[in-house]
Amino acid sequence: MGGVLVRSNEGLVDIPMLYSLVESGPRTAPRQLTLVDVGFKSGISMSGRKFDDFEQPDAILGKVGVRPDEVDAVILTHLHFDHAGNFDAFPNARLFVQRREYEKWQEVVDSIPELSIGKQSWMLSSLDVDVLRRFDAAVRDGRVTLLDGDHEVSPGIWCRLAEDTHTFGSQWVEVTTMDGPFVLAGDCVYWYSNLERMWPPGYIQGNAWNMMRAFERLRRVVDDRLDRIVPGHDMDVFSRHRSWVAGLNPVAEIHLAAGSATRQPPVSAEPS
């Protein structure tokens, strides 16, 4: 996925597909649960290969004691299959996506005479037409809020438009805490090394120069404290933060509000 000279000769790289759950602090009532990105529905990659250790939303959220029907809001950073495919697994959630992202992908799909070409076409290489059709139905049912630029979804949680970067209307999410801001970057940043080397990834469907400007903005928001940014596909999330393995995959705890207890299960003593 790096696809650039600076990432040459590194061999195979593990690519996680991340869910990011934001829970309101313990002094907030009622509790608010916001999910940023929702993974894919089938576990099949753009190459047709099934991803290893694929888990569904109930299993993933269950690791931190949350059910899909408890999620209040789902923010989709963009509409690629690996970030938006499971949006309808959260029956009580309000859905948020940038209007430009939704409408421009509609234009792409409408422009392709034979959609059965699927992921053999670069235009559809990361988009599932079925996901877009299901999303159309959610828009008609009134479940979706189409955003026009920056928007505060709930107190302290901001969607920030990064127009024509990774995709037409990608967005990243800024989360305000008592300890300063954190960023859930979606694919506005793939890996920490994109920010550390100021080098865009090789696979984008927007404009690399705009992505570089987004990198600069993100670095300013967190005052260059890059561990406050969660990239879209970096296993280093789990080595840079408190983490543990539950089920088939690891969980990372990025930040705890004052008075919140860790979700990490206690370590059981080894039998003698």
Q: What would a concise description of this structure say?
A:
By secondary structure, the protein is an alpha/beta fold. It is built from 7 helices and 12 strands. The radius of gyration is 18 Å and the shape is globular.
What descriptive keywords fit this protein?
about 270 residues, alpha/beta, Metallo-beta-lactamase, Chain A, 5-stranded mixed beta sheet, 12 strands, about 20% helix, globular
* Euclidean distance between termini CA atoms: 45 Å
Q: Look at the structure and give the mean pLDDT.
A: 93
Molecular shape:
globular
Reading off the top of the CATH hierarchy, the class is best stated as: Alpha Beta
Describe the secondary structure blueprint for this structure.
Blueprint: E1 20-23, E2 33-36, H1 57-62, E3 73-75, H2 81-84, E4 94-98, H3 99-111, H4 129-140, E5 144-147, E6 151-154, E7 157-163, E8 169-177, E9 180-184, H5 192-197, H6 208-221, E10 229-230, H7 236-240, E11 242-246, E12 249-253
Parallel strand pairs: 2-3, 3-4, 4-5, 9-10
Antiparallel strand pairs: 1-2, 6-7, 7-8, 8-9, 11-12
